[in-house]
Amino acid sequence: MKSAFLILTVLTVAMVSCQQAAKQQGSTKTTNATLFWTGEIAADGCGFEVMIDGKNFLPQNEDAIPAVYKESDSTQVKLTYMPLPEPIDRRCGMLPQPRVMEAIRIISVESL
What's the CATH number for 28-111? Predict the structure, then answer.
């Protein structure tokens, strides 16, 4: 009886912990950010990079960023995003080493 209660307690705690972690990872944030356009990946560029509070991130879904932001090397924007748990390892351009950065998922981008 005690072992069944112990197993049930452990499973309940594990389930609650996983749900809390999923909520934290799934929460969206809105902030001012700088978008850096480095060029098309197919043409030896590295796509978009995002700077938030002095820290650089790679967007998982660059296609969510409107093409108008490709007209300038850097643009100040209001960004709604979701932090992702795994970094992105992007190999692009003429760089021999990978660019591993924290990842975000873009929800929306607005000009300032």
Answer: 2.40.50.500
